[in-house]
Amino acid sequence: MANRTRKTSRAFERDKRAFFAKCCREHAPCWLCGMPIDYAAEKNTADDSFNLDHLYPVSKRPDLQFDPAGFRPSHTSCNRLRGNRDPATPIGLLSRQWVDPALGGQSEG
Ligand SMILES: [Zn+2]
């Protein structure tokens, strides 16, 4: 958790590519709806094409945007529908970090 290094966008691109390649290899399903993703389709185009989603919405946790641990495979359409909301029903993979006290309570001011 001491990873406070700000990554360059180039590193982010590389991490994204590596993540996509991994998901593609494993035919990872969409983490939001559990349906297969069309890895042959151009990213971010068709509704069932691959789209990089984040465990925590970037708007809520911009500090985690470049953290590969938070990357999740999703459909372009599902990610669009999700918006900034937390997913209604996480598919099986309930993360140890799902409940983050930092997100819960304290609001400032
Ligand atoms: Zn989906």
Distance between the termini: 26 Å
Each distinct ligand: zinc ion
Strand content: 5-15%
What sequence of helices (H) and strands (E) makes up the elements?
HEEHH
* Rounded Rg: 14 Å
Shape: globular
Q: Uncertain runs with pLDDT below 50, 5 residues or more?
A: 92-101, 104-108
- Summarize model confidence as the mean pLDDT: 80
The SS-based structural class is alpha+beta
Q: Helical content, roughly?
A: 25-40%
Total beta strand runs: 2
Count of runs of 4 or more consecutive helical residues: 3
Biggest β-sheet description: 2 strands, antiparallel
Strand order of the largest sheet: 1-2
Could you walk me through the main structural features you see in this protein, from its secondary elements to its overall organization?
The protein is α+β, with helices and mostly antiparallel strands and 109 residues long. The chain has a domain at 28-94. 27% of the residues lie in helices and 9% in strands. It has helices spanning 9-26, 76-82, 101-104, and strands at 50-54, 71-75. It has a two-stranded antiparallel sheet with strand order 1-2. The longest helix is centred in the N-terminal third of the chain and has 18 residues, at 9-26. The protein is globular, with a radius of gyration of 14 Å. Zinc ion is lined by residues 30, 32-33, 35, 74-75, 78. Zinc ion (ZN) is lined by residues 30, 32-33, 35, 74-75, 78.
